[in-house]
From TrEMBL:
InterPro entries: AAA+_ATPase, ABC2_TM, ABC_transporter-like_ATP-bd, ABC_transporter-like_CS, ABCG_PDR_1, ABCG_PDR_2, P-loop_NTPase, PDR_CDR_ABC. Pfam families: ABC2_membrane, ABC_tran, PDR_CDR. It is a multi-pass membrane protein. It is found in: Membrane. The keyword Oxidoreductase does not apply. The chain crosses the membrane at residues 504-524, 531-554, 560-581, 671-689, 1024-1045, 1057-1075, 1095-1122, 1143-1165, 1171-1190. One of its GO terms (molecular function) is ATP hydrolysis activity. It comes from the Eukaryota. This is ABC transporter domain-containing protein. GO terms for cellular component: membrane. It comes from Cudoniella acicularis. Residues 77-328, 738-985 form the ABC transporter domain.
Length: 1243
């Protein structure tokens, strides 16, 4: 042990030797891709050394002032804020993120970027990769092989790739599908045996990263089961390597990997760079000496300033010359970063007052050093030497493109495949991702005219509504497409179009099945040609609407905004088809919509298709009755538009010509117009995805404040990093008041099996261990070893599989209140982003501490936890989302705090240091250590301990389980487990009584108060969602109001008023689509953290969400009702009777409440947002189809009468229709033959 401690702080020279298997695998890969892929930037075989040079790189980001949390009020005042700069000379102050960074990395070299969180490491890497869209601006010079980064982005895209910290993949693709697609997109199209080559390269990459056993497993994500977190990270790394880029840039790419796999990744990168003459630049946290030793150069950043650039050895010598001393057992990366932290750095004797302290001191020392002078000279020398070679290199590159037999335009953009090949490949991947009875037997008489129009209109309406769900899917795809665009795999526009095309076969099936049922059950014309035309138009209408809605999503950054626009757009598309309101009744200010409405052309063609050539017998002749039994048909007339006096038959062609001005000769003209609309929207969709920015300007890890707090704390405009100095952490006074645990936790002979496709798979076998009060136990192991699985089993958080063995507390079986008595800190920091830190901690304390503890005591305990976790500086900051709000360390501290405020007897933590740098990790672990010393029992998984290198690739064949079982230490553990057992279990009756009494720590009413308050805050601080609802309702009310403006009390006017009411009901579909994403956001939080912890009852979750949504809909629904009610002219019917007007408002508000509850019900039944949006059209069918408007009750099949009465639309329309006054039609209305059908059939 002594020898180990002495050598722990020094690099292990044996570990620096590259693993032979890794070296061979990487070289095999490089040899394979040389024949199938193409280096766009030509390697300089002669002349000066070439590589990457960056000089005086500066970046400015978000507003340097205070950043406030947006609310409904601030969003309402935003127009005034936008106008204010026009009358003010004050210019916005932008925060400088980077201040003049320099560096040079030659071919075959690796650069390590180090710095504390917030120092600018990610910003530097993104800038070097040319990803600057999220910044306000940048300046400086970045070149690769003598080419500017702007040239690289335009002509050699894919030679410089950036791998972000997060792992974003299509969760329902397997590992093999993901990687083979990546290889396919980077493999030349015209090479011999291309499919074999793709398979060979893919297999090589799988071997390099040890993923051979996961090929058929789904990638998954945080909510979809798939490969482990470490394996998902390796898939991300493999995907980047598959691009065969000349320059690879890695941002904290070892997050989630254990020490062994982290070093293995470094070895892969080292061999890839050296053998392939490539360049690698990486920012790493918690990098071991074995990993750091693989890099050639290092640059260190501090508060956006560069304080060193050079080799690893030079960096150690440089900081030693400044008076800093490397502590015992401190890794090199920790030493380089610790020099900027007053409480963590060590100085030589007598140098305490001479070392640099401020960032300006460090910059001054750096620029006065010989290392800085050498760097500047190297940059100047290489730039001068390269000037004479730039033009020749570009000419050589041009010749190489010609030799590759690829289109010049594609090669200039840096893509390997042509657009056609990209389309083919993305289509293959997209494919891998992948009410007729209401009108039953429509009569063949004039009585069926209205129903035939209704069934055709319904066919168009349903296919329009069901494409609404495609808006949601576009936002789930964006981060993945953006990442792969950065790899130059394909154009985003090509992928967008291919994803649209990939659905065409599926839509053929779905539309055909829908049409078959609807068409033949509704007894439409039984002719093959007419059915084919019906299918052709409904199919292309569906495709056209799909492309339109996707285009709207592509030009909007927020889903709520896109849904508002789509919801408003649906109304003119549906209303101005010519069915809901005939052309002759349209007001001139909106009649033009008909001519630019693609649905109107589909409706005209389908009506003409159905009525052409029909001679329909008249169902009722005038005059008729007992007094006219012997009258001749020559003296009778059919009261249907287009009829001929003296004839009992009505020509379908005359009927549609007189009623709608429709003609059969327009069918194929209309089809051409529909195709033109479809092509236009599809091209517009592709161009929007390709060229419209899909990301907003980033704020960075800058704290966001509530306005009333931020106005008093101007100093909070800068990022607040939690103190981590040793002096501050050594103060344990705050720990004294923490609840001390008196319970021991043990497990013995633990097995865990799950059911898989081929039978049963064992994940855990014979596991035993314990945690005593006042101790902290770590679960360590390689990626995929089962650390998180064991932790979930012990914490009772598994939902599938079979667990065998003992899990005991103080020797007793676990009670029903076990989850309430313990805390579980997940590796993902899932929080309500609109809440503040203090609000979140108080929420947890109020719900999880016993009811007999006063609110004052709970809040005081929260303040103690804030002090213990050193969160005072940002306790009133809004949590935000990663990249805009709390940084990683602050979020992790808060996640721990949420569990601590509950006073748990045991805390489980899953990888609490994942993604953090060494100092932040040490700060978190030291805090946990102090919690344990104060009496807390802690069990946690650690993903990068310093010992796993021994258990990694160097001793792969060792049976560690057998060694452990036969060791003396294992026997000691067995003895300890025996001593923790209880001689006798209490009676089951007593246990049950105790469990039931402690299941609920707070009353249901108290739970409701707290959760309802948070729900109101959540909505108030979500202005994009609220404003989206306001815009949708207000715009719809105004539009419908002026569409049916001041309708008269005539036959046509009353029918239009009825359709004005029905049009209002169409609004329910986009309203329900708007609600659902909101529901899934809240439900994910509840399911992942709050429900497992038994914070509050599930009914409270449902009730509070329903009430909040209902109140919101009442307010926004009123904004719809007021312009609609007065503009249509309903107020004329209620003159002198305000009570009836108020009652009509109440009826509409009941409809708004139904929309809220029904949308939430559908969302609750759906597993995810995508499925939820698919359920809405079918639900809409049942409530809209049977309400009596599209098909009168008298003609509705008897079986569906119960749905008619169950539909809420029925009662609203019936009430509105019952308010229509009695009137005497004029003679012109009775005899007119050139107006639309006078069908007023209120339900």
């Amino acid at each position: 042990m002594k020898d180990t401690e002495e050598k722990a702080g020094e690099p292990d020279t044996e570990a620096l030797l590259l693993d032979q298997a890794t070296t061979a695998a990487v070289r095999e890969y490089l040899q394979l891709v040389q024949t199938s892929q193409h280096d766009h930037i030509e390697i300089a075989k002669e002349g000066p050394p070439r590589g990457a040079i960056f000089k005086d790189v500066k970046v400015s980001g978000g507003d340097a002032g205070i950043i406030y949390q947006d609310t409904v009020t601030t969003m309402a005042l935003r127009p005034f804020h936008l106008v204010r700069p026009l009358f003010s000379n004050q210019k916005p102050a932008w925060k400088e993120i980077l201040h003049g960074i320099d560096g040079i990395v030659n071919e075959g070299e690796m650069l390590l970027v180090l710095g504390r969180p917030g120092s600018g490491c990610t910003t530097l890497l993104k800038t070097l990769a040319g990803i600057t869209d999220s910044f306000h601006g940048w300046s400086g010079r970045v070149t690769y092989e003598g080419l500017l980064i702007d040239t690289i982005k335009k002509k050699f895209r894919g030679d410089v790739v950036y791998n972000a910290e997060g792992d974003v993949h299509f969760p329902f693709l397997t590992v093999l599908q993901t990687l083979s697609f990546a290889v396919k997109m980077k493999t030349l199209h015209k090479i011999p045996k291309r499919s074999n080559q793709i398979q060979s390269v893919t297999n090589s990459i799988l071997r390099i990263f040890g993923l051979e056993d996961t090929t058929s497993t789904l990638i998954g994500n945080d909510f979809v089961a798939g490969v482990s977190g470490g394996e998902r990270k390796r898939v991300s790394l493999a995907e980047v390597l598959s691009t065969h880029a000349r320059v690879t840039i890695w941002d904290n790419s070892t997050q989630g990997l254990d020490s062994s796999n982290s070093v293995r990744f470094g070895e892969i990168l080292h061999e890839y760079s050296k053998t392939g003459n490539n360049i690698a630049m990486a920012a790493l946290y918690q990098a071991s000496d074995d990993l750091v030793g693989l890099f050639d150069k290092v640059t260190i950043l501090h508060e956006g300033q560069q304080i060193f650039f050079g080799t690893i050895e030079e960096a150690e010598d440089y900081f030693s010359s400044l008076g800093f001393e490397r502590s015992k057992r401190q890794s090199l990366s920790e030493f380089f970063i610790s020099v900027t932290e007053t409480g963590l750095r060590s100085t030589k004797e007598g140098w305490q007052d001479r070392v640099p302290r401020s960032v300006d001191d460090f910059v001054q020392c750096w620029k006065a050093s010989t290392y800085w002078a050498s760097l500047e000279k190297a940059i100047v020398d290489q730039q001068d030497a390269a000037l004479g070679h730039d033009s020749q290199m570009q000419n050589d590159s041009h010749e190489q493109k010609k030799a590759s037999n690829k289109p010049e335009v594609e090669m200039q953009e840096g893509y390997i495949l042509s657009r056609g090949a990209q389309l083919s490949a993305t289509l293959q991947r997209a494919v891998a991702r992948l009410g007729g009875s209401a009108f039953y037997n429509t009569p063949d008489t004039t009585q069926g005219f209205f129903s035939r129009q209704g069934v055709i209109f319904f066919g168009i309406l349903f296919n329009t509504i069901q494409t609404l769900g495609e808006v949601v899917t576009q936002y789930a795809r964006r981060p993945i497409v953006q990442k792969q665009q950065g790899f130059a795999m394909y154009h985003p526009g090509i992928d967008a179009v291919s994803s649209l095309i990939s659905l065409w076969p599926l839509k053929i099936v779905s539309v055909l099945l829908f049409d078959l049922v609807l068409y033949f059950m509704a007894n439409l014309k039984r002719e093959p040609g007419t059915f084919f035309i019906f299918f052709l138009f409904t199919y292309f209408t569906t495709l056209m609407m799909s492309a339109l809605f996707r285009f709207i999503a592509a030009v909007n950054k927020h889903e709520a905004t896109a849904m508002s626009i789509v919801g408003v757009l649906i109304l003119p598309l549906v209303i101005y088809t010519g069915y809901v309101i005939p052309k002759t009744s349209m007001h001139p200010w909106f009649k033009w919509i008909t001519y630019i409405n693609p649905l109107s052309y589909s409706f005209e063609a389908l009506i003409a298709n159905e009525f052409h050539g029909r001679e329909v017998i008249c169902s009722t002749l005038i005059p008729s009755g007992p007094a006219y039994q012997n009258i001749s048909h020559q003296n009778q007339v059919c009261p249907v538009t287009g009829s001929t006096p003296g004839s009992i038959y009505v020509s379908g062609d005359l009927y549609i010509a007189a009623s709608f001005d429709y003609y059969h000769s327009h069918i194929w003209r209309n089809f051409g117009i529909l195709i033109a609309f479809f092509v236009f929207f599809m091209v517009a969709y592709g161009l929007a995805v390709e060229f419209v920015p899909q990301v907003e300007k980033g704020r960075g890890d800058v704290l966001i404040w509530l306005r009333h707090w931020g106005s008093r704390r101007n100093e909070k405009s800068q990022p607040a990093v939690a103190p981590s100095s040793a002096d501050e952490l050594s103060d344990s006074q705050g720990f004294a008041r923490l609840k001390r645990s008196d319970k021991s936790f043990s497990w013995n002979h633990l097995d865990y099996d799950i059911h898989v496709k081929d039978g049963t798979k064992t994940l855990l076998t014979g596991i035993h261990g314990y945690v005593k009060p006042g101790t902290m136990t770590a679960l360590i192991g390689e990626s995929g070893a089962g650390k998180t699985t064991l932790l979930n089993v012990l914490a009772q958080r598994t939902e599938t599989g079979v667990v065998r063995g003992e899990i005991l507390i103080n020797g007793k079986n676990l009670g029903k209140d076990f989850k309430q008595q313990t805390g579980f800190v997940e590796s993902q920091d899932v929080h309500m982003s609109e809440s503040t830190v203090r609000e979140t901690l108080r929420f947890s304390a109020q719900l999880r501490q016993p009811l007999d503890v006063s609110d004052k005591e709970k809040n005081e305990y929260v303040e103690e936890i804030i002090k213990v976790l050193e969160m005072q500086d940002y306790a009133d900051a809004v949590i935000g989302v990663p990249g805009s709000g709390l940084n990683l360390e602050q979020r992790k501290r808060m996640t721990v705090g949420i569990e601590l405020v509950a006073k748990p007897s045991l805390i489980f933590l899953d990888e609490p240091t994942s993604g953090l740098d060494s100092q932040s990790s040490w700060s978190i672990i030291l805090c946990l250590r102090k919690l344990a010393d104060s009496g807390q029992a802690i069990l946690c998984t650690i993903h990068q301990p310093n010992i796993l290198r021994v258990m990694g690739s160097q001793v792969e064949n060792t049976e560690w389980a057998d060694i452990w079982q036969n060791s003396d230490e294992a026997k000691v553990v067995e003895q300890d487990l025996a001593s923790l057992g209880a001689p006798k279990q209490p009676s089951k009756e007593k246990d049950a009584k105790q469990d039931s009494s402690s299941i609920s720590k707070t009353s249901l009413f108290h739970q409701y108060q707290l959760v309802q308050t948070r729900s109101f805050q959540f909505y108030w601080r979500s202005p994009v969602y609220i404003h989206g609802k306001v815009i949708l309702n207000l715009a719809a009310g105004l539009f419908l109001g002026f569409t049916y403006f001041q309708e008269k009390n005539s036959a046509q006017g009353l029918q239009n008023k009825m359709f004005a009411t029905f049009s209002s009901l169409i609004l329910s579909a986009p309203l329900m689509n708007q609600i659902q994403p909101r529901f899934f956001q809240v439900r994910d939080l509840y399911k992942s953290r709050e429900e497992p912890s038994k914070m509050y009852h599930w009914s409270i979750f449902a009730i509070t969400l329903i009430i909040t949504e209902m109140i919101t809909n009442l307010i926004t629904g009123t904004l719809y009702f007021i312009p609609w009610f007065f503009a249509v002219g309903f107020s004329h019917n209620f003159q002198g009777n305000r009570g009836r007007s108020a009652y009509m408002w109440i009826m509409f508000m009941m409809y708004e409440l139904w929309v809220s509850t029904f949308a939430l019900l559908i969302a609750a039944l759906a597993p995810n947002a995508q499925i939820g949006t698919l359920l809405i059209p079918m639900s809409f069918v049942f409530v809209a189809l049977f309400c009596g408007v599209l098909q009168p009750l008298s003609q509705l099949v008897q079986f569906w009468h119960f749905v008619h009465y169950a539909s809420p639309f029925t009662w609203l329309i019936e009430y509105v229709s019952s308010q229509f006054p009695t009137f005497q039609p004029s003679s012109s209305e009775l005899t007119s033959q050139n107006k639309g059908p006078l069908h007023h059939r209120p339900p």
